[in-house]
């Protein structure tokens, strides 16, 4: 029997290097993302392979690494033609890196690999959606006004999509107080975002990447 979703943690804090290394491989990230698209489902390896357009044999080793790291778990097993088939669930709804893990100087290489894999995976999905036409921008401001004199159809001018894409890149200086407040508000927003919806209401796929950091010179001198 599959585990009840309530038995899993909402947000897992990653605080060890081995789990960080498990997250540093693009294919393992893709496996985890595919499974987290339906956190309540039990996934067979061949179904995940079909979603990722990969041969199942290529996934088994990565599945075992994710299982050993506690990122996924066996939800149920069954015998198929005399062979035991396992079905897997994610062990959490979202992941967060611990501050201690981020702060430890010896973890810099593993952190860089994990961030690179995450950013590359997100970039690939963004480019895929842009090329396929799934990345639909909001209508330009003033679109309704420009069609005001277009005749009978003017009243049907398209309104901005409330779920239209939002892309923001910021690089600026803030006071320590404002920076601290801003980060706190982002943390609260992420806690709210990671709260799972009822299965019947969870119908809108959302791609969301949030990063915030305040660069600091390493203690003891300039970076190598």
3D architecture notes:
- This protein is of the alpha+beta class and 224 residues long.
- Helix content is 40%, strand content 14%.
- The protein is built from 8 helices and 5 strands, in the order E-H-H-E-H-H-E-E-E-H-H-H-H.
- The chain has helices at 17-22, 26-36, 45-52, 56-68, 99-103, 108-132, 143-146, 176-193, and strands at 9-14, 43-44, 72-80, 83-90, 92-97.
- The strands form 2 sheets. A 3-stranded antiparallel beta sheet has the order 2-4-3. Strands 1-5 form a two-stranded parallel ribbon.
- A hairpin with a 2-residue loop joins strand 3 (72-80) and strand 4.
- Helix 2 (26-36) crosses helix 4 and helix 3 packs across helix 4.
- The longest helix has 25 residues, at 108-132.
- The protein is globular.
- It starts with 8 loop residues before the first strand and ends in a 31-residue tail after the last helix.
Number of strands: 5
Report the biggest beta sheet as strand number plus sense, adding barrel if it closes: 3 strands, antiparallel
What's the total helix number? 8
H and E order: EHHEHHEEEHHHH
How far apart the termini lie comes to 53 Å
What is the CA-based Rg, rounded? 22 Å
Mean pLDDT: 82
Name the features.
8 helices; disordered N terminus; 224 residues; three-stranded antiparallel beta sheet; two-stranded parallel ribbon; 5 strands; alpha+beta; 40% helix; single chain
Task: Provide a quick synopsis of the model.
This protein has helices at residues 17-22, 26-36, 45-52, 56-68, 99-103, 108-132, 143-146, 176-193; strands at 9-14, 43-44, 72-80, 83-90, 92-97. It has 224 residues and is of the alpha+beta class.
